[in-house]
Design brief:
Bound molecules: zinc ion
Distance between the termini: 42 Å
Helix content: 25-40%
Radius of gyration: 13 Å
Strand order of the largest sheet: 1-2
Largest sheet: 2 strands, antiparallel
Number of helices: 3
Length: 95
């Protein structure tokens, strides 16, 4: 592992184009993680980690940077994956 820093994740909610996105923020550095890249559900929402998940350490200093990443990196080719994760993350919105 290249990372010696041990994040202390807390759950936060950000508004991305009207969508509420839950993700993890490090209490120490204030860095915001991409919920898809790090699999926020298992990192800070006490959900089990998926068996085959390609984790990436992607962190941002501001919510704007995270939104840009979500919209331009994930919203394209990974739109379906994004929606799947988003629906999983917004479990309190069950109808
Ligand atoms: Zn990402």
């Amino acid at each position: 592992m290249a990372y010696t820093w041990e994040p202390k994740w807390e759950l936060i909610e950000v508004d991305v184009d009207g969508m509420k996105i839950k993700t993890c923020r490090d209490r120490i550095t204030g860095l915001i993680a991409c919920p898809i890249c790090i699999h926020a559900a298992s990192k800070c929402m006490d959900e089990p980690a998926p068996a085959n998940y390609e984790y990436e350490n992607v962190f941002f200093y501001s919510v704007d940077d995270l939104i840009n990443h979500l919209l331009y990196y994930h919203a394209r080719g990974l739109k379906k994956k994004f929606e799947k994760i988003q629906s999983k993350l917004s479990s309190e919105e069950e109808e």
